[in-house]
Each structure stands twice: as structure tokens, then as C-alpha cells.
């Protein structure tokens, strides 16, 4: 069993100072970027996707796939404890929201319509992530 991820807590004022208005809206207010407009939806370089709010590693490029939805999509998180899943009943739907387990930043949602081997589609806001190329 792995140790719990240490939490990063900041005030709303600190987050507003560190993030652009769009990043703040997505990460701290559970916003969603429009499809095909955010970063990384069409990036397929070898690398790692990290939480923009705290730098925690979230997903690797070898788990990324083109879901055709206009958002970066992955079938597996880098580790199970990198994300937290929360029931989301907003907008008249029942979905599973995913958040960064370290800073509680909103990342997107997970759906059961992804490819093997997991059958999951982690549908992320590119605005919520940074990308680090890896050799």
C-alpha cells in the first residue's frame, strides 16, 4: 500500500495570483474548456502530463489515445492515487469527476467507454495540465 499523497492547500487568492483566469476557472471552479480548443488534445509526443496546479504526475503519453472528443483522453492514470474520483450530478447527468489528489484541482471526467486494457476514458481539460517531453 502506498502512502497518501500529501495535500497542497492554498487560498483562493493565492490560486488567482498563480493561474490565468482560464486555468483558475477550470482547476478551481470545475470549468470545462470547449472541445478542440485547449492544449494537448492533439499532442502525441512521448512524455508525461502533470497537474498544472501542483506539478503532480497524472498521465503518460503511452496511455493517451484519440477519442475524437476534442479533449486529451487517457485509459489509465500514472498511479491510482494520482487522482480522486467524485460523483458528479451536475447538468442533469450522473458522471464521475476526476480531481488531482494533491491540490484538488478539477481535471475532467472518467467514462466507461475507453479502449482496452481498462475500458476507461479519462477525458481531461488540457488547460488543467502541463506536458513534459520524455526521452
Automatic annotation (TrEMBL):
<dbReference type="GO" id="GO:0006979">
    <property type="term" value="P:response to oxidative stress"/>
</dbReference>
<dbReference type="GO" id="GO:0008270">
    <property type="term" value="F:zinc ion binding"/>
</dbReference>
<keyword id="KW-0862">Zinc</keyword>
<feature type="binding site">
    <location>
        <position position="51"/>
    </location>
    <ligand>
        <name>Zn(2+)</name>
    </ligand>
</feature>
<feature type="binding site">
    <location>
        <position position="103"/>
    </location>
    <ligand>
        <name>Zn(2+)</name>
    </ligand>
</feature>
<feature type="binding site">
    <location>
        <position position="54"/>
    </location>
    <ligand>
        <name>Zn(2+)</name>
    </ligand>
</feature>
<feature type="domain" description="MsrB">
    <location>
        <begin position="12"/>
        <end position="134"/>
    </location>
</feature>
<keyword id="KW-0560">Oxidoreductase</keyword>
<comment type="similarity">
    <text>Belongs to the MsrB Met sulfoxide reductase family.</text>
</comment>
<feature type="active site" description="Nucleophile">
    <location>
        <position position="123"/>
    </location>
</feature>
<dbReference type="Pfam" id="PF01641">
    <property type="entry name" value="SelR"/>
</dbReference>
<keyword id="KW-0479">Metal-binding</keyword>
<feature type="binding site">
    <location>
        <position position="100"/>
    </location>
    <ligand>
        <name>Zn(2+)</name>
    </ligand>
</feature>
<dbReference type="GO" id="GO:0030091">
    <property type="term" value="P:protein repair"/>
</dbReference>
<dbReference type="GO" id="GO:0033743">
    <property type="term" value="F:peptide-methionine (R)-S-oxide reductase activity"/>
</dbReference>
<dbReference type="InterPro" id="IPR011057">
    <property type="entry name" value="Mss4-like_sf"/>
</dbReference>
<dbReference type="InterPro" id="IPR002579">
    <property type="entry name" value="Met_Sox_Rdtase_MsrB_dom"/>
</dbReference>
<dbReference type="InterPro" id="IPR028427">
    <property type="entry name" value="Met_Sox_Rdtase_MsrB"/>
</dbReference>
<protein>
    <recommendedName>
        <fullName>Peptide methionine sulfoxide reductase MsrB</fullName>
        <ecNumber>1.8.4.12</ecNumber>
    </recommendedName>
</protein>
<dbReference type="GO" id="GO:0005737">
    <property type="term" value="C:cytoplasm"/>
</dbReference>
